[in-house]
């Protein structure tokens, strides 16, 4: 893979990252952003300011990002998206590695994520374990957890 760097997200990137999220989700619904479910989360200024928003960039352009939510007993993966042209190229794996390193730095022992069913395979390959399904704002998600030290780094 060509050179990809990881860095903190910037507030002025918010509109671009929101578009990246929609393009990423469109990959799984036939490629049309118009077909992305209305329940799709949006990235907020608060996410960038207080949720460890982190970007993967190539040639100065964001191509993926994640956010984290700190909880008392686990570190939650809030958003984790790779732009459509880079899905399957290793960018997700690179972001995951950074995310796990950040989790260790934050002292987390457990990761948790409400994953879309289409993302379950990725998270399983990263060492996360599917626990149960639940409904979140009309969207079916799978609660997954992974212990630091047992997930892929």
Automatic annotation (TrEMBL):
Q: Which domain of life is it from?
A: Bacteria
Q: Would the keyword Acyltransferase turn up in this protein's UniProt record?
A: yes
N-acetyltransferase domain residues are 4-149
What is this protein identified as? N-acetyltransferase domain-containing protein
Give the matching CDD domains: NAT_SF (cd04301)
Q: Which UniProt keywords apply?
A: Acyltransferase, Transferase
Biological source species: Planotetraspora kaengkrachanensis
Recorded hits in InterPro entries, A to Z, give: Acyl_CoA_acyltransferase (IPR016181), Bact_Acetyltransf (IPR050832), GNAT_dom (IPR000182)
A molecular-function term among this protein's GO annotations: acyltransferase activity, transferring groups other than amino-acyl groups
């Amino acid at each position: 893979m060509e050179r990809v760097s990881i860095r903190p997200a910037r507030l002025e990137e918010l509109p671009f990252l929101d578009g990246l999220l929609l393009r990423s989700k469109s990959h799984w619904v036939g490629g049309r952003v118009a077909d992305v479910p209305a329940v799709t989360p949006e990235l907020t200024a608060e996410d960038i300011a207080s949720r460890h928003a982190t970007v993967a960039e190539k040639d100065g352009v964001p191509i993926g990002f994640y956010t984290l939510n700190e909880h008392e007993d686990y570190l939650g993966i809030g958003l984790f998206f790779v732009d459509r042209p880079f899905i399957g190229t290793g960018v997700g794996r690179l972001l995951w590695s950074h995310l796990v390193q950040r989790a260790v730095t934050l002292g987390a022992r457990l990761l948790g994520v409400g994953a879309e069913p289409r993302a379950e395979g990725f998270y399983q390959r990263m060492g996360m374990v599917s626990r149960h399904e639940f409904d979140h704002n009309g969207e079916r998600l799978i609660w997954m957890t992974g212990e630091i030290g047992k997930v892929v780094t």
